Amino acid sequence: MQTRTLGTTGPQVSALGLGCMGMSALYGEADRAESIATIHAALEAGVTLLDTGDFYGMGHNELLIGEALRAAPAARREQALLSVKFGALRDPDGGWSGYDGRPAAVKNFAAYSLQRLGVDHIDVYRIARLDPDVPIEETVGAIAELVEKGYVRHIGLSEVGAETIRRAAATAPISDLQIEYSLISRGIETEILPTTRELGIAVTAYGVLSRGLISGHFTADRQLAANDFRALSPRFQGENLQHNLNLVEALRKIAEQKGVSVAQIAIAWVLSRGDDMVPLVGARRRDRLTEALGALDVTLDEADLRAIEEAVPADAAAGDRYPTQQMSHLDSER
Ligand SMILES: NC(=O)c1ccc[n+]([C@@H]2O[C@H](COP(=O)([O-])OP(=O)(O)OC[C@H]3O[C@@H](n4cnc5c(N)ncnc54)[C@H](OP(=O)(O)O)[C@@H]3O)[C@@H](O)[C@H]2O)c1
Fold this sequence. Notes:
Mean pLDDT: 97
GO molecular function, one term: oxidoreductase activity
Domain NADP-dependent oxidoreductase: 16-311
Bound molecules: NADP nicotinamide-adenine-dinucleotide phosphate
Keywords: Oxidoreductase
Radius of gyration: 19 Å
Pfam families: Aldo_ket_red
GO cellular component, one term: cytoplasm
């Protein structure tokens, strides 16, 4: 397995991480046994980084990962590095009601996550969205206290902009920024990426397949459950969807010429952006995982990169990456 290092202070991780969110929430029903088999197959293939959030299925995702780790051989369990997000507040009916980054809340979230995961420490801990009522210094400071006590190893960030990154990094060492980055979500390139690079912070990129949209497997006639994130995502609606799927077809031509899949081109493109990039792929089935891992063997030369750029120019996508109300929670979009 190829490896990359999370910034100047973070751990060495597999060049691809496994994002476990879709195994519990947001993309419709998932098969529990297949999800666990996918985590095991990822560990077996040498994947070390597993990403979750305490709010993915209100604890469901952490319990699932805990179960998968307990059932894995000891050597595989020990290689797993857990990246956990906290801070999102949920309702019993599944609703979202804001963020809590107060120091006492941070410690409370961590205490429950350690229990659910069945581990004595979390490898990278981060608030999912900036709490607008709590200075980032206080939230990061609370995680730094957890680092001192050994409950957390490294501090990460998620979906924050350049100024917040600087303030966080002035408070404590930051290993990585988790943020959406893909062929059709390139907003970080202007200010955020130069800032993380200046400060020696890695990027753990999510939505590399734009939640399946640019995987090559998504079709316009796919029926989405009402609680599927994509049922409300602007990029998956009507004309936007058709426009975006046309981009995928342009990408498919390049993939076919190279004898690889569309998803592999999309993942390989993120990997090609720099050694500070670690794509988190949202595979929840073993066949999808195998496809994603295949991207590690895809080399994109200058001609490939030019052809990809022509097929999918930087601002080619139609529709925002989140619904309007959720866009307003993104410090990274300010
Ligand atoms: N920090 C944040 O704000 C934030 C936000 C969102 C996600 N995340 C993290 O990032 C992880 C990845 O995000 P994501 O799941 O949205 O990203 P993604 O990898 O862009 O999308 C996953 C979707 O792509 C589909 N897919 C098709 N082919 C695939 C393949 N070969 N490999 C993997 N997926 C394939 C899957 O479909 P099927 O399963 O339907 O086949 C799944 O619905 C999440 O699991 C989560 O841990 C973080």
